[in-house]
């Protein structure tokens, strides 16, 4: 097994899912999209206490291992450690990187959400392992957060030395535009979790990202 950081380099399609996605029970939903090409799974559940979140983490960890994907926990460093996750994803207002790294140790991933050039540049110098850039398009997943547009994707492609995942309202109908702006990796939420054919959509998204990334 490659070190986690090496595995991150090959990740193109990153799913962020609630514990109970509309597309079906987590234990049934994840194998469908993982087999279809999802490389990373982030469990994002803002309102569950740790004890209630752990059973879903156990499902995500087991299914990610089954398909060779990385498993990330949103926000909660304590839960990520307890669940044996590959990493944690932090927003700009979450635990500062230095404290998260002290708790997570050197061998697990820390991702950071960024919404501007300044935040992207700061994350690149902070020691974070990857960044999510967005929201590219307006999305109800981030109410009140204005879309940053494709320009920030282009800036990230030119200036960031980290793996960068475009995020925010990305789906099968606009992935081509995001790729044209410079994205080679993407995070998706509703495109899969609310789809009537999540496996088919995941296959299409992964194919387009793979073709853009080259051999």
What does this structure look like?
By secondary structure, this protein is an alpha/beta fold. The protein has a single domain, classed as Alpha-Beta Barrel (TIM Barrel). 44% of the residues lie in helices and 16% in strands. It has ten helices and eight strands. Strands 7-6-5-4-3-2-1-8 form an eight-stranded parallel sheet. The mean pLDDT is 94.
Please report which band the strand proportion falls in: under 5%, 5-15%, 15-25%, 25-35%, 35-45% or over 45%: 15-25%
Quick one: how many beta strands? Answer: 8
The dominant shape is globular
Structural class: alpha/beta
CATH topology: TIM Barrel
**Mean pLDDT value:** 94
Query: Uncertain regions: pLDDT < 50 for 5+ in a row?
Result: none
CATH level-two architecture: Alpha-Beta Barrel
* The top level CATH class name: Alpha Beta
Q: Taking strands numbered 1, 2, ... along the chain, how are they ordered across the largest sheet?
A: 7-6-5-4-3-2-1-8
| CATH level 4 superfamily | Aldolase class I
Task: Compute the separation of the termini in Å.
Answer: 21 Å
Let me know the largest β-sheet.
8 strands, parallel
Individual helix count: 10
Number of domains: 1
Output the radius of gyration. 16 Å
Order of helices and strands: HEHEHEHEHEHEHEHEHH
Question: Roughly how much helix do the residues carry, as a percent range?
Answer: 40-55%
